[in-house]
């Protein structure tokens, strides 16, 4: 099957390779001339036979919206666009509406697997019409992990459902990473345990807390046992915030995911204004000592 792939960054580049290994013809476009197959989006579209399928893997937000708008002016009735980036689910209805006016189908696909997806396959969560999903199924089958289709792929629902599912997936990921990180810090803090990497590695087989994330933490510690080369500063790409917002909108208690998100905010503060206020209050009502800033 032919596929146009827009965006050949960390994920898109490996996805192109995995699809080619599976025998699909992939034409990639990227602004980086070192990795692109064609010079422009118009060139990409003209290279493909109809009905054309174009997969977008560019940063969420304006970059994706602009790409969808450009494709709406290039593609034709019967073609299909798939947004595989981490777009907010509320963008999908607008993208689908814009393309539908030209007779172009639209699917949103949450993709999980990171840089390891090339060899391991990608977890896929798709939103959109069933006939559009069926049209793209050979691509989904090539990208997902080997094994039963429902282990690594789901048609989650209508337009927006794929990105919504991926949003919740990433919110859960925030909580899991934070729990592992707190456990690591506690083990590392006490003198009683002198083989923290060994303990974590032992957890990777036969325990109820084993997971791929734990495997990756063990790998990170094998590469840098004290994590001395990494600063404790953690960004968030949006999905955790959106998950918390949706939990609030739907009155769903989500204390773990919320706390994990706030922990990332704390990681970016050199000196917490809130903790300054707490120290000042303890001093005011109880006469407790405070640590002064260096002049």
Automatic annotation (TrEMBL):
It comes from the Bacteria. SUPFAM superfamilies: 6-phosphogluconate dehydrogenase C-terminal domain-like, NAD(P)-binding Rossmann-fold domains. PROSITE patterns: 6PGD. Keywords: Gluconate utilization, Oxidoreductase. The keyword rRNA processing does not apply. InterPro entries: 6-PGluconate_DH-like_C_sf, 6DGDH_YqeC, 6PGD_dom2, 6PGDH_C, 6PGDH_NADP-bd, 6PGdom_BS, NAD(P)-bd_dom_sf, Pgluconate_DH. Residues 162-295 form the 6-phosphogluconate dehydrogenase C-terminal domain. GO terms for biological process: D-gluconate metabolic process; pentose-phosphate shunt. GO terms for molecular function: NADP binding; phosphogluconate dehydrogenase (decarboxylating) activity. PANTHER family: 6-PHOSPHOGLUCONATE DEHYDROGENASE. Belongs to the 6-phosphogluconate dehydrogenase family. This is 6-phosphogluconate dehydrogenase. It comes from Herbihabitans rhizosphaerae. The lineage of its organism: Bacteria, Bacillati, Actinomycetota, Actinomycetes, Pseudonocardiales.
């Amino acid at each position: 099957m032919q596929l146009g792939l827009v965006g050949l960054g960390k994920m898109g580049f490996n996805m192109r390779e995995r699809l080619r290994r599976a025998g699909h013809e992939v034409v990639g476009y990227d602004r980086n001339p070192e990795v692109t197959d064609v010079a422009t989006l118009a060139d990409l579209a003209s290279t493909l036979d109809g009905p054309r399928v174009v997969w977008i893997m560019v940063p969420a937000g304006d970059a994706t919206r602009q790409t969808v708008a450009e494709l709406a002016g290039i593609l034709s009735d019967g073609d299909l666009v798939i947004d595989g980036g981490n777009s907010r689910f509320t963008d999908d209805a607008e993208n689908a509406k814009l393309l539908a006016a030209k007779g172009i189908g639209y699917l949103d696909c949450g993709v999980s697997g990171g840089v390891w997806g090339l060899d391991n396959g990608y977890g896929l969560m798709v939103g959109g019409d069933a006939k559009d999903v069926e049209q793209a199924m050979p691509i989904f089958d090539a990208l997902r992990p080997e094994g039963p289709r429902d282990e690594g792929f789901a048609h989650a629902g209508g337009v927006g459902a794929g990105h919504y599912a991926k949003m919740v997936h990433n919110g859960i990921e925030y909580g899991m990473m934070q729990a592992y990180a707190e456990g690591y810090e506690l083990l590392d803090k006490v003198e009683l345990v002198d083989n923290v990497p060994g303990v974590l590695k032992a957890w990777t087989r036969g325990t109820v807390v084993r997971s791929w994330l734990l495997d990756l933490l063990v790998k990170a510690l094998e590469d840098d046992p004290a994590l001395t080369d990494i600063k404790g500063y953690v960004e968030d790409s949006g999905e955790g915030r959106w998950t918390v917002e949706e939990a609030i909108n739907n009155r769903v208690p989500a204390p773990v995911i919320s706390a994990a998100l706030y922990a990332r905010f704390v990681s970016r503060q050199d000196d917490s204004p809130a903790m300054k206020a707490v120290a000042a209050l303890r001093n005011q009502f109880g006469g407790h000592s405070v640590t002064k800033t260096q002049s």
